[in-house]
Write a structure and sequence with these properties.
Structural class: alpha/beta
Strand order of the largest sheet: 3-2-4-5-1-10-11-16
Number of strands: 16
Largest sheet: 8 strands, mixed
Number of domains: 1
Shape: globular
Strand content: 15-25%
């Protein structure tokens, strides 16, 4: 009997050890799922936006509370005009609860202003200059509220400048060398593209917009050569990606999305800041296709 008990104890101990190991291995996955945002990113490359595209944004916003949409037009050179125009556009598509706030830095730093966004189902950033967005709201209570809404299930969308600002690391649109007009970003070289902090709604990629239309391959390749931990995502005009909570995205619209994956590439410096890259993966995605950011495929 004593031998049998020892065997039982041994089996029980092994089972406990196995369960402990499984729990340990699954713990990071559980934590990741708990921290994962419940919301969506709706990132438009610029250009014309079809009604069908904007209706998808509206439908995602409608999943949260009453589907109220807030437009933040600070990127625009004419923010009041842009804000009013977009309010009218959304109303024509059937949205009853839609407003715009052209926020100054001082207003964005006021906690009472951040409460204006409470309960929103969608936040939308139109185009212009992405630096104006971060100058107005980066690290303010309004920025924090936008992140909280995203965590809770809201859709955060933007076009052009509003697309670039989504990532943790943001392309500003400027370069260190001072080229003549019409000769911007003609080189693939290290340290030339000026980057800044974006809103940090997605941190494993960097976004470029108007991509194939404005021939922006050079600048995105230059950026990811210096940051091979990131995927470079170039979204063309009339095209968007919808990023889901599991970090997969769908391509919608009329043109292409290009993904550069330098994670396994060999990157070598050349003369005068030139860059050599061997083994980089490039995906050219069509509307209707899906891509997994974590799996890189």
């Amino acid at each position: 009997m004593r031998i049998v008990r020892q065997n039982n104890y041994t089996c029980s101990g092994i089972m406990i050890l196995i369960l402990m190991m499984v729990s340990f291995l699954l713990a990071p996955l559980t934590i990741d799922a708990q921290n994962r945002p419940k919301g969506y990113l709706f990132i438009i490359g610029g250009g014309n936006r079809s009604e069908e595209m904007m209706e998808k944004f509206i439908n995602l916003a409608a999943r949260v509370n009453q589907g109220r949409i807030v437009i933040l037009p600070m990127a625009s050179a004419t923010p009041e005009e842009t804000g009013r125009s977009l309010v009218e556009e959304f109303k024509n598509l059937g949205v009853t609860a839609v407003v715009f706030y052209n926020l100054s830095r001082r207003e964005a730093e006021d906690y009472s202003t951040a409460r204006w966004l409470t309960g929103s189902g969608g936040i939308y950033f139109p185009g212009g200059d992405q630096n104006r967005i971060t100058e107005a709201i980066l690290d303010t209570p309004v920025h924090k509220m936008i992140k909280e809404l995203y965590q809770q299930g809201a859709v955060i969308g933007g076009t052009s400048a509003g697309a670039a600002v989504m990532s943790e690391l943001m392309i500003t649109g400027d370069e260190i060398r001072k080229p003549e007009e019409g000769h911007e970003f003609e080189t693939i070289e290290s340290g030339n593209v000026i980057l800044a902090r974006g809103l940090g709604l997605i941190n494993s990629v960097i976004i470029d917009q108007h991509f194939a239309t404005r021939k922006r391959h050079n600048r995105l390749i230059s950026v990811i050569a210096g940051h091979p931990e990131l995927l470079g995502i170039g979204i063309d005009e009339e095209t968007a990606i919808i990023v889901y909570p599991d970090q997969t995205f769908d391509v919608i619209g009329n043109k292409n999305v290009i993904v550069y994956d330098p994670s396994r590439a060999q990157i070598t410096p050349g003369r005068e800041r030139a860059i050599g890259i061997r083994g980089m993966i490039m995906h050219i995605l069509l509307p209707g296709e899906k891509f997994s950011i974590p799996k890189k495929k």
